[in-house]
Amino acid sequence: MTRGHAIRPGRVLDVATGALLTDRAVVVEDDRIAGLVAAHEVPSDVAVRDLPGLTVLPGLVDCHAHLVGEEDNGHGYTELLTRTGAQEAMTGVRNARATLRAGFTSVRDVGTYRAFVDVALRDAIDAGWTPGPRMMVAGAYVSCRGGGGDISGLAPDAEEHVPAEFRVGIVDTVDDVRRAVRRILYGGADLIKLIGTGAVMSDNGNPGVPELTEDQIRAAVEEATLHGAHVAAHAHGAEGIKRAVRGGVRSIEHGSLMDDEGVALMAEHGTWLVADIYGGDYIAEIGRRDGWKAAVLRKNDETTLTQRAAFEKCVAAGVRIAYGTDSGIYPHGLNARQLAYHVRHGQTPLEAIRSATLHAATLMGWEGRIGRLEPGLYADLVAVAGNPLDDVRLLEDVRFVMKSGEVVRDDVPSS
């Protein structure tokens, strides 16, 4: 009887050092990595899966995912009221499977309009009921009334009929923020997601306009910290970004209209940037093809190029960058497409890969769980044909995926 198994590829990418190691095997026991050993030193009582010609690296991480719900259709969020919570949960099951098969073995899921469906999906995956990535979840958005995290665009006499689960995190005052943060964390969330400015995809609002005060943001951070959780802030506009950084958030999501002062503040405070710099091209192409709302397309056009310019400035300034794609804007499973955009806009292929492995784990506080191929960490790994340091787009076509020691995709012919 074997007591574990080993993966023996052509190369192993050490994301910490950047070294491509040959003649290595990853030994797995249960759900953890037991060791990285010379290929000829694999214990005799371990089953071996050879992956000749492939490069193995840690499982990928998307730090800005939305697994719950149908893909965005560019017509606002009032359509959410036409679907049940059960339907939303089942879309999450489908999306989680596609994400995992694409090589993303962990995600930071940063919000759902219908509160706590992401918590249920996380727990179902952890229980082994359905396949999917390891999830860190936000539970619900903390947003001002009528803002980017609220259901807007309804007739005034319909507002009172919106189910309460859509408005768990809707706030007006600082005290409201504290209550909402506690409610969301007590409901099972792992982090807090603030909507600090208007949104591109919402029915109304301006991405450049702040929607939470600095005092509200600071209150959310203080309350979350008491519970051992961090805060991510959706922030497109320059002033909203600076309020969030000064308020102590761990990450800025999007960062589309960041100015030079904001870049400097982020570098000074050690705030992470998670910027979905692929999504703008998808929205522009598919949105125009499929007739998305003109206001959505306009806001996307106004933020896509400025976001990429801000990303380049952050790379040059040494701002900490973690990988996040806003999955759900585009079909789930295409998460790796953004890696090439990281390279196009200033990162080396190694740094792009680190943003989705090593650095993503650090942002999430999961350094002791994921992000590297080291003993004691979860046995999460992917394999691609060729060398991703030469062409990071190889990660768009993973051939082998393992999560927690279980093979969930194997498209490599046995030798």
Task: Describe the overall structure.
The structure is a single chain. The model has no long low-confidence stretch (mean pLDDT 95). The strands form three sheets. Strands 1, 2, 3, 4, 5, 15, 16 and 17 form an eight-stranded mixed β-sheet that branches. The chain has a six-stranded parallel β-sheet with strand order 10-9-11-12-13-14. A three-stranded parallel β-sheet has the order 6-7-8, with helices on both faces. It is 31% helix and 22% strand. By secondary structure, it is of the alpha/beta class. α6 links the parallel β13 and β14. The chain folds into two domains: 96 residues, Urease, subunit C, domain 1; 305 residues, TIM Barrel (Alpha-Beta Barrel), CATH 3.20.20.
